[in-house]
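Q: How do we represent a protein-ligand complex in a form that can be generated token by token?
A: Start from the inputs.
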Amino acid sequence: MKLIVLVYHMLQQGNLRFGIQAYEVSPDRLQGPSGRYLSPEANAFHPFQMEPNQLMLRTSRVCMGCHEQFINDKGVPMCQTGMEYSDMNAPVTCQSCHMPKVSDSTDHSMLGGHSETMLKRAIVVSLKTKTEGNVIKTTVRLQNMLPHRFPTGVPFRNVYMKLTAYDKQDRLLFNNFKTFPPEAKDDPKAMFMYNLADETGKTVALPFSASEMLSDTRFKASELRELDYNIPSKNVAVIRAEVIYHLLTPEFVEKLGAGLTGDLTSPAVAGIAEVKF
Ligand code: HEC
Ligand code: HEC
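Then emit the structure tokens for the protein with heme C bound:
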């Protein structure tokens, strides 16, 4: 075992390097995130000598060689979490959320979009309503709590805000999307996604073949958005806003659908708010 990272540089002699190739690997030295292993005597717990590298391993840099940016062979960015993040100079590290300290040890499970618990930290949803004549003027306030985009990571992650109104008997009176999965044409401002296209301008299901970016409507780091709706007030007993997260786009599922199950095809609720009348 001899892998450990010393520095990362994606640009080396003019060539972009991705993933592990962005890191320099030492043939004979091990490094750790704390200064604790300085003792020259190897022990049973750490049979190899270690040296500290806090600047690399205790900061976001350790993630950046792989997560700063990845572009496909046509130059289209596939994921850019690190660049989204450096935009705001956040003093908080990636590890503070993705490798939290729990009961004296560090959780290495690297939770992200597969974890509903993580998703629930991503966004704060609230509703403001005001009845005027026979409409309820409704504002949905959405605040991204993350120092990177929401959703971030691979291009097929996608989010939408579903706004519904029901009567006392739970009958649906209003829905901002007519179908499920939702279609952007019903309510484009409530869809938060990264749209990639082929050379003819047609949306691609599989991002690795994309040749251009059409639009990026995902939340920026810390972004606040307010969306306004007029809902007919007759018989309304409850108005509900839900922020729904999908790991894959419907097009992606259709293309590679056979065998996909669980959270790959069913959505998760990242945030919810309700007002009762
Ligand atoms: C050697 C490359 C490499 C390094 C270093 C690395 N990652 Fe990753 N990471 C990946 C790859 C590849 C994936 C899978 C593709 C994806 O989901 O983007 C991934 C996936 C993830 C995911 C998503 C997991 C899921 O549920 O799908 C999170 C969150 C993540 N990494 C966070 C981090 C953080 C935080 C760091 C730094 C402490 C880090 N990674 C360092 C390569 C790396
Ligand atoms: C304040 C907490 C927080 C910090 C700090 C943070 N993240 Fe995240 N990250 C999240 C949450 C919550 C999600 C799930 C929602 C989403 O995809 O945006 C997530 C999602 C991700 C994903 C996508 C996971 C997936 O399943 O696709 C990656 C990759 C990732 N983060 C990497 C990073 C990196 C790299 C950093 C540091 C530059 C970082 N994160 C900093 C909370 C955080």
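The chain has two domains: 1-66, 116-276. The two ends are 64 Å apart (CA to CA).
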